[in-house]
Write a structure and sequence with these properties.
- It is built from five helices and no strands.
- It is mainly α and 109 residues long.
- The longest helix is centred in the middle third of the chain and has 27 residues.
- The radius of gyration is 15 Å and the shape is flat.
Amino acid sequence: MNFFEKQKTEMVNMQGSIRIAVYEYFLSQKNDLAADLLKDYFNGAVALVSQTLAYGIDRGEIVPLDTEQTARHIVLVLEGLNTLAMGTSVPPKLIEEQTGLIMNMLVKA
C-alpha cells in the first residue's frame, strides 16, 4: 500500500479514530503548549515529506521542484481532507481526485 492509499484508508475510516480525540483536545486548548505541539507536528510532517521528495528527485522518480513548498502543499491538502473526514463522510472519489492531482504534479509523464 502506498502512502496516498494509506491516507485514503484512514480518511474513509475516520469515525471512531483516536485522531478525532487528539484533534478535539488540541483544538480545545487555548495555550502556547498546544499551539507549539501542533506547529511541531506540521513542521515535522513537512520536513519528512520534503526529504522524501528530495530523495525521489535524486533518484529521478520525481520531477525537479521546490521540495519545501511542495511538501507544505501536500501536508496542507492531506490535513484539510483529514479535518473534513472528522466531521463528515469524505467520498473516496474526492480523496482520489486530490491525491491524483498531487501525484500528477510529482511524477514524470
